[in-house]
Amino acid sequence: MFKRMKIGLTVGLLATAAVLFTQTAHAAADVITVVSGPTFALGHSAIAIDENDNPYIAYYSGLGGLALSVCDTPTCTNPIIRELGDLGNSAFYPNVALDSSGNPVIGSQDSSFDQLELVRCTDPTCASSTVTVVDSQGDVGQYASMALDSADRPVFSYYDATNTDLKLAVCNNLTCTNPTIRVLDASGGDVGLYTSIVLDDANRPIISYYDAATPEKLKLAVCNNPTCTNPAITTVDSGAGIGEYTSVTLTPEGLPVISYTGGIDGIYLALCNDRICSNPTIRTLQNIEAAYTSITIGETGYPVVAYYDATNEDLKLAVCTNSSCSNRNIRTLDSGGDVGEYAAIADRAVAYFDNTNLTIKLYRAYRPTLPNAGFDLPLSDWALIGGADNAQLCLTDGCAVALTGDGSTDLIRTTVPVETIPGGLWTLSFEVTGLNIASGGQMGARLEFLEGDATVATANCLAPERGTFDATTVTCPPAAAPSSYDAIRISIGWQNISGGLLFIDDVALDVTN
User: Fold this and answer.
1) Cβ-based neighbours of 436, under 8 Å, separated by 6 or more
2) Structural domains in the chain?
3) How far apart are alpha carbons 440 and 435 in whole angstroms?
4) How much is the pTM?
5) Please, are residues 448 and 457 in contact by the beta-carbon 8 Å criterion?
6) pLDDT digits (tens, 9 = 90+) for 151-185
7) For residue range 290-312, what is the model confidence (pLDDT) as tens digits?
8) In sequence order, which ranges of 174-327 are alpha helices (DSSP H)?
């Protein structure tokens, strides 16, 4: 007696079951790509992700100041490079966001003229754009941070180096031709460095920043309305070196959470227990000299922080595993040279500077997906190849694939559209059950990497089982992908076997690197 079977395909990270034919996702692939243009880069990276999971990365280019890499795949293997600045200008502290039409919006300091500028792209690839000077009163725009409100209007926090104050610019139209500009903190000393801004659901700014006056402080300005007429200012933490390289976001409950450094002593996380952060929980994430922190909320709802480990010159990631971050995992994402300055995180992607090679890099915890968003591939997408008259490929509950040996070649075959993953290792596994399978011939599977209709690489996998056997899982050796491909054809079955029955179940395709 044979158990009743169904057949499944696995690609990616998420699982969805169908009655007969399922696909489940497994591991993501860690991918690192150089995304800057042929001209050397000078750091100052920022990142946004569009609805198709494609990154947009702004950075300081050695050619003309501000540059933008527009990616048309999640791993950004062949970006469009836009040089948006003028030759000889300097683009410090860039920020990039996407408006509701998918058009990039970029804010930065033009340090050649000590002014805060806005670049607004008129299409998703930024083939054309408009440039506005937002503030030029003195030496302004250092440590700029930008967010878009619900009407796509930019809001900036930044440092006024002339007056050593924290400033806010609230744009009243899309191109910011007549912004409302306020001084938020002029408490004396040197205040307003390392700013980071986020807007709540009511478009009210929340800004973390550094106060260099002794004792040094991490501060938070919480606005009560969109133009911030009367902000609440809180000292969140204080001490030697405390409060540099701040980054702020909001938890799912709408409470601020801030990453920051403490000089040579460590990288910290402040979890606010109320909106103005009057009694925060402070966590030490790692006792190292760190810089360039960038925070987001992960899929679990807990904080995730990318940062530069200045002690080891590595890009690091701290992933909180509970809401208070009392438990966390620390990962090294890149350690090839001096890497990780100007880290900027969005979703499962980090843009950062490679100081050894003067390039901007992208790290992705990438999940390859099928075009079918429901993760349901119909059983009818598999074809029977061969001459077995009584081979079955059933669409009713109770049978799956049964091949009867007659000495010919009998296969099930399907083609899965995928995206090129540089360095990807694809592993095929499947379950087989057999009865009285004759000796000789071959039984197993084949992966064919396709580009268009052409096969560019092939990997074979033999199953040694013969005779009568219970369900056995065959896991093929990882197949190294070629440099370019857009689909994988999977064939499973046998050839030159004269007798027996073969049932196939639980086909899985996983990728790692």
Assistant:
1) 467, 468, 499, 500, 501
2) 7-26+370-512 (2.60.120.260), 29-366 (2.120.10.10)
3) 15
4) 0.74
5) yes
6) 999 999 999 999 999 999 999 999 999 999 999 99
7) 999 999 999 889 999 999 999 99
8) none
